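Researcher: Sequence of Cytochrome c oxidase subunit 2 follows. Predict its structure.
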Amino acid sequence: MVLSGCSLQDFGSAFGNFGWPSNGISLQAHKMYDLWIGSVIAALVVGIFVWGLIFWCIIRYRKRGDELPVQTRFNMPMEVLYTVTPILVVAVLFYYTAIVQTNVDKLSKNPDQVVEVVAFKWQWQFNYRDGVGEDANTVASTVGSADVIPLLVLPTGEKIRFEETSKDVIHSFWVPELLFKRDVFPGNVRNKFEVTLDREGRYVGRCAELCGTYHAFMQFELVVVSPEKFDQYLAARKNGATTQEGMAAIGFTGKDSYATTTEPLNTRRQASSWNQSNAVAAGK
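Model: Prediction complete. Tokens:
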């Protein structure tokens, strides 16, 4: 009965990756995955060693009578072992964590693409920029609305710089497949980070910071394409094409030119307006 709700796929995902998602779509995500797997293996080795000592002591020194065993006051080798070993384990984990964290936070001098992420209640605006910093120019822009989920089209194999800012409160830029998120702050604080995507596809994006009434509806879609298709898309946008027209230029037509991983959600305000309209039409 307990295992009836489990599948082999769920079992393999949970235990094969030690609980860490294996669907990362960036080079940074893969490095974080490797760090997690290494850390869990180290924890298991230490755990098995400690458990072995515990059970060995339980069996070897179990009570065999009323006579007290030999009392040992000091054991210098043992004290050195359980003092030095944890320090070494923590030092190694700290070393590799610092390396991976530095890599994830690393900013290049000349990224291949720069996207300014502008968050506001309760939508996203993505500005494609011709350089880094606030003095750069926006060459194309996508803004979401209550009716249309905004699309963020990006290429594989290129260093992509995100520069985040908010027009009101704190939001959070989150694509689950990137395996990390970054808060978006208002004012002069601009969070910056870079990713290099390595898998084409369409992925849902969300706000991961409670930001008000319609926080749950603050969605976008990340569309990862080849560098060639991205260049075609950006060229179309620079020439005045809309987001959907740009998507059509690279082969995404009809419904595929809109978000496919998520859809706009009806808010209570929209539902209330719909009910009022129906009531008026019915003469109530």
